[in-house]
Specification:
The complex is a heterodimer of chains A (219) and B (208). Helix content of chain A is 79%, strand content 0%. Chain A has 219 residues and is mainly alpha-helical. Chain A is rod-shaped, with a radius of gyration of 50 Å. Chain B is mostly helical and 208 residues long. Chain B starts with a helix and ends with a helix. Classes of the chains: A mainly alpha (219), B mainly alpha (208). Chains A and B meet through helix 2, helix 3, helix 4 and helix 5 of A and helix 4 and helix 5 of B.
């Protein structure tokens, strides 16, 4: 048996609810402007207090860095003056001058010895020839050999030392200035380290402001 | 730093002593010392660092080396004498001592002798010059080491200053007063809000 198909009864339409007032209320609850003016003032004061502390810390870092840089600078001046007092440039110049003098003196002495020895030997040969009745002449080469020895062995090397000495002394005299420059570079480094520390704190208080209630980020 | 500089000074004195000793060795091996009284007027009073080497002891050593024939100049003199004797004996044996050959042989021997004397002294002067170059370079290096040691000390002092281990000079101006920080007590505390009930929490579970 086939049951007859029966149409289901028409259900009544659901009433259309107006949700707008509820959604508006929820939006107002979620919005940061929903903080009351008093809460916002309290939060701002709290953030301002934190930032002021950080800025005070920054000022202290800057003051310490400046003071330490000044100390390093003073130390560099003292070190440079100490090096200056050692008289390294004059000492080096004196060493070269004494070396040149020694070379000239040695060459002059040996030049005289060579001249005397050779001239004495030549004179002896001349006497021997004369005793044999020979009229031959032996050329005396002592003076020329002595002059050559002094020039090549004494004067030229000494001249080189005379040229190198002032250059070496100039280099040694520059040492105090180099130390001063090195110390000033160290002082700049100390100040730079202070600035880096200060910058780190700047990032910190910027982060605090960003995260504060009512800021653009939190909104 | 002071200890290092003392070492540098000691090294400088050591360099000077070493130079003097080596100069004396060169002069003694050659067999000739320098007599300041026989130097030219412009040089006699300016012996430089050679003056320390010209001691009575050196003169005694040179005399001994020459008398024993072990010095370079003594060996050259002996070679020359032997050459002259050989020439004269050879020519006499051949009966031509009075010919012009003896004069020629004697001149050749004298030339060789002169050349040997020159070369021996030139070698000695070259050696002395080499010593001077080394000595001046060493002294220059010591000056550089003093500079480096001072810089190193300055670097160490800077590290101590940065670590706060070195007190600032008392003559320096005092630290500027810090700006007054905002007192925390002046800021009213934000009242705590009651926590909203959360499903599943102990509070809601007990309520159910």
């Amino acid at each position: 048996m086939t049951l007859p198909y029966v149409q289901p009864p028409q259900l009544p339409a659901a009433p259309q609810a107006n949700l707008s007032p509820l959604l508006d209320a929820l939006r107002k609850q979620a919005a940061p402007t929903n903080f009351g003016p008093q809460a916002q003032a309290l939060a701002a004061a709290d953030v301002a207090s934190a930032v002021a502390g950080i800025r005070a810390q920054q000022d202290e870092i800057r003051r310490q860095a400046g003071q330490q840089a000044g100390q390093v600078n003073d130390a560099a001046h003292s070190a440079a003056q100490f090096l200056q007092s050692l008289g390294l440039g004059d000492a080096v110049a004196g060493d070269y001058a004494h070396a040149a003098e020694a070379q000239r003196a040695g060459a002059a002495g040996y030049s005289g010895g060579l001249r005397t020895t050779v001239d004495d030997a030549a004179a002896q040969v001349q006497r021997n020839l004369a005793s044999l009745g020979s009229g031959q002449q032996v050329p005396g080469q002592g003076a020329a050999a002595g002059d050559a020895l002094y020039g090549l062995g004494g004067n030229l090397p000494a001249n080189t030392l005379d040229v190198l000495g002032p250059l070496a002394a100039q280099s040694a005299r520059a040492l105090p200035a180099q130390t001063l420059g090195y110390g000033q570079a160290l002082a700049v480094g100390v100040q730079g380290a202070g600035l880096s520390g200060r910058a780190r704190w700047t990032r910190t208080w910027r982060r605090s402001r960003r995260n504060a209630p009512g800021s653009r980020r939190t909104t | 730093l002071q200890g290092l500089l003392a070492q540098i000074n000691a090294s400088g004195a050591g360099n000077q002593a070493s130079l003097t000793g080596q100069q004396q060795q060169i002069l003694g091996r050659l067999g000739e010392t320098i007599d300041p009284s026989r130097l030219p007027a412009g040089i006699a009073g300016r012996l430089g660092n050679l003056g320390a080497a010209l001691t009575p002891e050196l003169s005694g050593v040179v005399d001994a080396a020459n008398q024993s024939g072990v010095s370079t100049l003594a060996q050259l003199a002996r070679q020359y004498q032997r050459a002259q004797s050989a020439s004269a004996g050879d020519l006499a044996a051949r009966g031509i001592i009075r010919s012009g050959a003896y004069g020629q042989h004697a001149a050749d021997n004298l030339h060789d002798y002169t050349l040997g004397q020159y070369q021996a002294r030139q070698s000695a002067l070259d050696a002395l010059g080499g010593l001077q170059s080394s000595f001046t370079q060493q002294q220059q290096d010591l000056a550089g080491q003093a500079g480096s040691a001072t810089n190193d000390a300055l670097g160490r002092l800077t590290d101590q200053i940065r670590a706060g281990l070195v007190a600032p000079p008392t003559s320096a101006p005092g630290a500027a007063p810090l700006p007054p920080a905002v007192p925390r007590a002046a800021v009213p505390a934000i009242p705590k809000r009651a926590a909203a009930p959360v499903w599943g929490s102990q509070r809601t579970t007990r309520a159910l």
